[in-house]
Recover the amino acids of this structure.
């Protein structure tokens, strides 16, 4: 398997390129519009064929590159079921597997950051957690139908039940981390566990209270990003 983590330093977003090295089929997860040329060039240099542009959720902080990639390649745009993106070619359901050559990419419904969000278990050994679980943190839950109680439940009941050695690749990082493991997050993620008392979960109500009092500013691109992403990256009024 070819696996690359790509970074957009303007919005702190990770994009993942995953490919089967024998069939040369590839998928880009959470591509960023401003980075489409970088991604397209990398895919060409590696001799890959882009099959899918796959979204973990409808983003509020950046415009997806999937719309542009669909114009440049024959890739299919895939978004989580119930995501409000009328233009998507295909929706993916909880438990459904997208196959890239011999590599399975299994969707795990992980709402909380938004009401339609998927994590993706790749090759049974790593999970792309989108804006659900971050390294020592988690995605915000204060807009886009976010819900902290739901976030707590899906992380503690669905993500933390993956094997401890599963690698964790988040959708963003703001402090320079790149990868973690489920075991490490179950020990050290201060949003979900008591780091002073190994093996114990933070109380659900205290998580909700914490998340409801973060008082974060809106992402600078929210007003343009959400409507554009509901059109698969077409900015309103733009000709392409
Ligand atoms: Fe997000």
């Amino acid at each position: 398997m070819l696996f690359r983590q790509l970074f957009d330093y303007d919005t702190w977003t990770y994009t993942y390129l995953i490919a089967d090295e024998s069939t040369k089929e590839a998928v880009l997860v959470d591509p960023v519009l401003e980075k489409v040329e970088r991604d397209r060039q990398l895919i060409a240099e590696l001799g890959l064929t882009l099959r899918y542009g796959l979204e973990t959720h409808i983003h509020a902080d950046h415009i997806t590159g999937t719309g542009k990639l669909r114009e440049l390649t024959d890739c299919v745009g895939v978004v989580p079921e119930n995501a409000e993106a009328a233009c998507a070619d295909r929706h993916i359901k909880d438990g459904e597997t997208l196959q890239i050559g011999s590599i399975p990419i299994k969707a795990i419904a992980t709402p909380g950051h938004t009401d339609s969000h998927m994590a993706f278990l790749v090759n049974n050994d790593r999970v792309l957690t989108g804006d659900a679980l971050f390294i020592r943190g988690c995605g915000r839950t204060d807009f886009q139908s976010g819900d902290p109680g739901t976030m707590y439940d899906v992380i503690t009941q669905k993500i933390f039940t993956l094997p401890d050695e599963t690698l964790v690749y988040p959708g963003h990082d703001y402090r320079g981390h790149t990868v973690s493991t489920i075991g490490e997050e179950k020990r050290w993620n201060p949003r979900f566990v008591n780091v002073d008392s190994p093996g114990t979960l933070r109380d659900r109500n205290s998580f909700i209270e914490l998340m409801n009092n973060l008082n974060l500013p809106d992402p600078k691109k929210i007003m343009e990003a959400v409507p554009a992403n509901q059109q698969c990256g077409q900015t309103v009024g733009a000709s392409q």
In short: The chain has a mean pLDDT of 94. Residues 57, 59-61, 113, 131, 139 surround fe (iii) ion (CB under 6 Å).
